[in-house]
Amino acid sequence: MSVLEVTSELYAEAEFCSTDTGNGNAISKFTFVYPNRRETDANGTPTGQPNGMDKRTNGLPETGKEKTPSIKDPDEESFIEEQSYESDYDDDSVCEEEEIESENECCQTSDQSVASPVPPIKLDKDGDLDVERQRKGAIEIEHRKSTRLDLVGLQIWRGALLLADYIMHNERKFKNAHILELGSGVGLTSIVASMYAREVICTDIDIGGLLDLIRGNVQRNAHLSNPHCRVHVTELDFKASYQDYPRELKDKLQHVQYVVAADVIYDDDITEAFVRTIVSLLLELPKLKAIYIALEKRYVFTLEDMDSVAPCYDYFLRYFQKRNSRFGVNRWKLINVCMNFPRYFDYDKVKDLVLLKICHASSK
């Protein structure tokens, strides 16, 4: 009986410089552009847009959604609009805003958009045009190019790069933070987080040599990390209860401020275990501010619905809401983060990519 092999769509989108390791893996360079913060004039008015792989659309299609009034969090410095998923379950909807490094980045509809101010022409001391050059970097990752479904963590998926983009664009938020990544795969997002954080706990299930692969990738890219950042690679199985976590891991988790996860929604049993895990973390971690989940809706056509649906994504929403309202009240908010931030890595930022934020319902 043949075993079904799956391959990340990412590998067909860009030419990665790869070399074979001889053990079935490849080492690939994933290039990125470092964020350039927007310059301002004497009055503090922005003179241009933040840079990325694509300055015009950031790899995103235009949307027709209407801009919604926002709620300002006094603890945040600047913001980007988010849309609450509470409206999927009741008649009330809530808008939240998310910190970004540049101002005026809220989602706009095509009829509301305003032309960006043209940056002034800069000349060098000889009078020649001074062209701003993007500073680039590269992350080297050992990974597989195809695997069985139960070993997909050995590959790299679009969600990891989307989450990496978000972290890079919000570096002030994550600077010196304590971050936990769930289902880290080969560790790319944790490596990006280590560029800014004080501590990164990189976790996954120990299967197929995955944790050793992560340790190798972390070491391979240690030169990119914040020199003050501590990176820990350890096992965290979604199917294990929080009470059964090792004491050393529990102690580290007490400092965690942000939890991140990318592309961990692909199987209903794993989805249920993942939701139970994040619910436990929301209940047990005293300093936890938010959980960010990047995923891709994968559509299939069903005769039952006579339409294309995203069953794994829909099941995640239903199961999370079931756990969220167990006691007759929603304890947490599930928010859709606006995708209006630049693309720093080379990949196709397709419209089916989603970035979700979960935080306590009492959070402003």
From TrEMBL:
What are the boundaries of the region Disordered?
36-90, 103-126
For bias type Acidic residues, the affected ranges are 74-90
User: Could you tell me which SUPFAM superfamilies the record lists for this protein?
Assistant: S-adenosyl-L-methionine-dependent methyltransferases (SSF53335)
Coiled coil regions, renumbered to chain: none
Annotated GO MF terms: protein methyltransferase activity
**InterPro entries according to UniProt:** Methyltransf_16, METTL22, SAM-dependent_MTases_sf
GO CC, sorted alphabetically, is: nucleus
Give the Basic and acidic residues compositional bias ranges. 53-73
| Leader peptide range in chain numbering | none
- Report TM segments: none
PANTHER family named in the record: METHYLTRANSFERASE-LIKE PROTEIN 22, METHYLTRANSFERASE-RELATED
Q: What is this protein called?
A: Uncharacterized protein
Q: What is the species listed in this Swiss-Prot or TrEMBL entry?
A: Anopheles stephensi (Indo-Pakistan malaria mosquito)
Q: In the record, what lineage is assigned to the organism producing the protein? A: Eukaryota, Metazoa, Ecdysozoa, Arthropoda, Hexapoda
